[in-house]
From TrEMBL, chain A:
Transmembrane segments: none annotated. It comes from the Bacteria. Residues 1-297 form the Luciferase-like domain. One of its GO terms (cellular component) is cytosol. Keywords: Monooxygenase, Oxidoreductase. One of its GO terms (molecular function) is monooxygenase activity. This is LLM class flavin-dependent oxidoreductase. Pfam families: Bac_luciferase. The keyword Oxidoreductase applies. Gene3D superfamilies: Luciferase-like domain.
From TrEMBL, chain B:
Residues 1-152 form the NADPH-dependent FMN reductase-like domain. The keyword Flavoprotein applies. SUPFAM superfamilies: Flavoproteins (SSF52218). The lineage of its organism: Bacteria, Bacillati, Actinomycetota, Actinomycetes, Kitasatosporales. This is Oxidoreductase. It comes from Streptomyces acidicola.
Amino acid sequence: MQFGIFTVGDVTTDPTTGRTPSEHERINAMVTIALKAEEVGLDVFATGEHHNPPFVPSSPTTMLGYIAARTKRLILSTATTLITTNDPVKIAEDYAMLQHLADGRVDLMLGRGNTGPVYPWFGQDIRQGLDLAKENYGLLRRLWREDVVNWEGKFRTSLQGFTSTPRPLHGVPPFVWHGSIRSPEIADQAAFYGDGFFHNNIFWPAEHTRRMVQLYRRRYAHYGHGRPEEAVVGLGGQVFMRKNSQDAVREFRPYFDNAPVYGHGPSLEDFTEQTPLTVGSPQQVIERTLSFRETVGDYQRQLFLMDHAGLPLKTVLEQIDMLGEDVVPVLREEFANGRPADVPDAPTHAALVAAAESADSAKGVTTA
Amino acid sequence: MKLVAVSAGLSTPSSTRLLADRLASSVHGALVAHGHEVEIHVIELRELAVAIANNLVTGFPPPQLAAAIDTVTASSGLITVTPVFTASYSGLFKSFFDLIDPEALSGKPVLIAATGGTARHSLVLEHALRPLFAYLRATVVPTAVYAASEDWGSGGDAYTEGLPGRMERAGAELAALMAARPADAVPEDDVTALERQLSDLRFD
């Protein structure tokens, strides 16, 4: 199982000081957070992609390429890459390039994006969001898997004899997760291709996450990729920890009360009871996170949202230290406990290459 | 069958709640007279005011609000009563119905009613409540009941029946629709239906 962090990349005023970081500070903070993730032994760093203030990460492969050069082990991912408003040709090229530079430490999570005004800035229309996601992803897959592509569709100019370069590293495209909070069609798309499904598991009750993951697992089996338990599932989560749980609650409350998404609404107590948000001691975080397994079954990737709502960088780095030192080692051990042998491991480039080679040798093909 | 009354009255005691109770007993009487068994539930939106605001902010209903929404959508007939605020239904009343899946009340027999300090606002029922439930594709009974302060203590006039007569007529209309309507099929445990209940996020 893989553990990591995902970031939205919002520039938010710290409600306790009234200070707003500059874009430059925020971008550097995201990089520092990624480096810290590797330092404390986490497996994954994933960045959001946004094209409107107050968010800064408009160019994920630029950022991830820079982080790749400064890390050795960390898997670099996205949460999410916009499959609707990005040209699939550009996604194919950018992420293949990143894959080469990062020696395969790359996967990506595709999402539709739900901000209506962003679509027309890229020549698209949110009302076509689902159709865009389907057509663009169909093309993206072909660009990574076929050396020469002839293609015609509804949303972009057709391609004749097109080769996307560079070709994926070792001929194996990056693993793809499909991220969706609420669209059953996206869970179905992930299942159709036998790709991973990621639920952000942050804003709403766990019951909703359970239903979406169950749908994905059921459809995964329906499309003949294996049994429901063999599907590849990732979850988000958000936590705030201090040794003493009262300290965690006291320190996090002003950030919660003013958070861009749920602030000025329910109390911290109600929200932690009704959603997967956990504010407390590392032990409480461990227990809550282990309970996700009861909700969705044994799964492959757990990402935590740590840097949001205006939390200062220093605090975020302390949180990641605790995550790496006190929480994740226990989670690794506990999640491995009683995990059935047929539950797949989390995807890595090396594993995908090995799988491709064994499939080729079964067919009697040799690769150069 | 299950009769549900939603009252958006804010004071205690409330004339809006009183009207909801009187209408419920009118519908109850008409149904029992025809041999039906009726269970009455009254939902006071005042008790859900904070939960409704929280749902608007977070996109999901807290448990007590989720239970109220389920009660409304699973009813065989619905009575909705709002005080008139600034020439329309109250914001609380509208916010509650904003949080219900727009298809969940399709075909549901509904009786609309309102209270106000003056009879001059009675057309609120026709220009605000009836279009709201028409949008939701509910079946709204022809008689809508408006109770102004003076209605509680006076009879009718040459043009209109008094409040008791109007309540009885409206109650009989709702009872007839409820009795004529086949029981709802049990909805599937469907993630698509769940999805519709959850409102948009601004942050993905």
